[in-house]
Amino acid sequence: MSGQKVVVVGGGLIGLSIARALAGRGVAEVLVLERHSLASGGTGKSSGIVRAHYGVPSLAAMAWRSVPVFEELGDAVGFRQVGYTVIVGEENAEALAANTAMHQGLGIDVDLIDVGKLQSMWPMMNVEDVALVSYEPRGGFADATQLALHYGQQARADGARIRQHAPVARVLTQGDRVSGVELEGGEVVEADVVVVASGWWSAKLMADLGIELPIEAYRSELIIVDAGEPLPDLPVVSDLVSLQYCRLEGAGQFLVGNSDHADFQAKFVDPDRYSNVAGEASIMRYAEKVMHRFPGFPEPAVTHTYAGVYDVPPDWNPVIGPVGAIDGLVLCAGFAGHGFKISPAVGDLVADLVLEGDSTDPDVPASDFRLERFAEGRPLSSLHPYVGAGEMR
Ligand SMILES: Cc1cc2nc3c(=O)[nH]c(=O)nc-3n(C[C@H](O)[C@H](O)[C@H](O)COP(=O)(O)OP(=O)(O)OC[C@H]3O[C@@H](n4cnc5c(N)ncnc54)[C@H](O)[C@@H]3O)c2cc1C
Questions:
Q1: Per-residue pLDDT tens digits for 98-121
Q2: Residue 393 has what pLDDT?
Q3: pLDDT tens track for 119-154
């Protein structure tokens, strides 16, 4: 099996993690083809939050398996282990307790803490509408671009090759198996296995093979807020009351992202042409939520905004595995804004699928991530969804 030639289409976190895992496990010929430069897709916009809080057990397990990777890499990928909290109101206390118990059953280091403890960690936070909190001491955040480049470096050290500015026009087949890819300039690269890890753009490569990948490009805005004073090491907050998430950014700033996906269909965009700044109305809305949650910041000011695009399947969870009736074709896309933290485990799962034909991790059944689940009407859903916040992904 390790004599196979594998082409990975896409040089984001996922494609590079897959290349790293395959090369690390002895696959002699691994080639990553990236149409622009490495990490230029969703990866370059990632907030890089590390946590194991998922409503789907296999995803929680994957996130938990990935934590030691961040711990080991540490400063090399900008990992700051400041902890991670989920805060909920009364209406979601039961779901938070149930999810936390599920996480503890998987061996995840997480606990429910009371609001007083949260207040002591985050003195400038308004906690009056917070009923319950979960706390993961080993969570935090890191730099997604740096992690992608690290995977690339590791893959190369193990013999993989990476080509940038090498757009793949189509996946080639011979009979019922893949035979390689054709680049936009007409060059043909032969392969026994083709892994399509091209984020939202995977849908087009699939469509050309007659495979429907239901996926949308959803624009998500972020703001950088200057708190007006230097900030200590504060845990990441996933605020399921106000529907926002916040983490430190530099010394006195923090990054705020939107977790209100109620009207997400209105924000589908062309991922090659979208506005990279938050609109006035949304800045006002986000600023209001920040002021509500953090009244203790002396002089908060929005200093910068930007936007990124999530590749969103109908259940907001990825497709990972063989697709269609084409031998050697593997799809790995649709991470919908949560692929960073699980990227180490995703690479390992794809290496398992290519080399062993199945997942070797009993907590991570490959069947969870089949493409067919959409057509069968069996989405991969949270066991204990949060009211108003939808699924915690
Ligand atoms: C704003 C934002 C915030 C996020 N925050 C978090 C977070 O806090 N925590 C978390 O876990 N996740 C987060 N994510 C999600 C995470 O960053 C993504 O799931 C992950 O980076 C996706 O990696 P990818 O490799 O699948 O896709 P991408 O990074 O999009 O990479 C796909 C690559 O394929 C290339 N490509 C496309 N078509 C072709 C082709 N035909 N030929 C060759 N190459 C091609 C593209 O140029 C691109 O580089 C966030 C995402 C965004 C956008």
A1: 999 999 999 999 999 999 999 999
A2: 61
A3: 999 999 999 999 999 999 999 999 999 999 999 999
What integer best gives the mean pLDDT of the chain? 95
Q: Is the pLDDT of residue 3 over 90?
A: no
Q: What is the CATH number of domain 5-44+145-214+315-375?
A: 3.50.50.60
Q: CB–CB of 139/84 below 8 Å?
A: yes
* Distance (Å) of CA 128 to CA 30, 115, 125, 242: 53, 9, 9, 12
Query: Which residue, 339, 258, 257, 333, is CA-closest to 63?
Result: 339
Reading the block at residue 5, the tokens are 């030639």
CB-defined site of ligand 1, < 6 Å: 9-15, 33-36, 40-43, 45-49, 144, 167-168, 197-199, 201, 220, 222, 308-310, 333, 335, 337-341
Mutate to test the pocket of ligand 1, among 16, 43, 254 (most ligand atoms within 8 A of CB): 43
Distance of CA 261 from the midpoint of ligand 1 (Å)? 19
The predicted model gives 357-361 an average pLDDT of 97
- How far is ligand 1, taken at its centre, from the CA of residue 12, in Å? 5
| Ligand 1 binding pocket mutation candidate from 32, 33, 35, 50 (most atoms within 8 A of CB) | 35
Q: What is the pLDDT of residues 242-269, one digit of tens each?
A: 999 999 998 889 999 988 877 777 778 8
What separation in angstroms does the CA of 141 have from each of 7, 118, 234, 258, 261? 30, 18, 11, 16, 22
CATH 3.50.50.60 in the chain, residue ranges: 5-44+145-214+315-375
Range 276-288 average pLDDT = 92
Average the pLDDT over 83-97 and give the result. Answer: 97
Domain with CATH 3.30.9.10 in the chain: 79-139+216-309
Cα 126 to ligand 1 centre (Å): 34
Its pTM surpasses 0.90: yes
Take residue 82 and report the two structure tokens written for it: 């400041």
Q: Give the homologous superfamily in CATH for domain 79-139+216-309.
A: D-Amino Acid Oxidase, subunit A, domain 2 (3.30.9.10)
* Residue among 49, 64, 338 to mutate when testing ligand 1 (max atoms within 8 A of CB): 338
The residues, any chain, with a CB within 8 Å of residue 281's CB and separated by 6 or more, are none
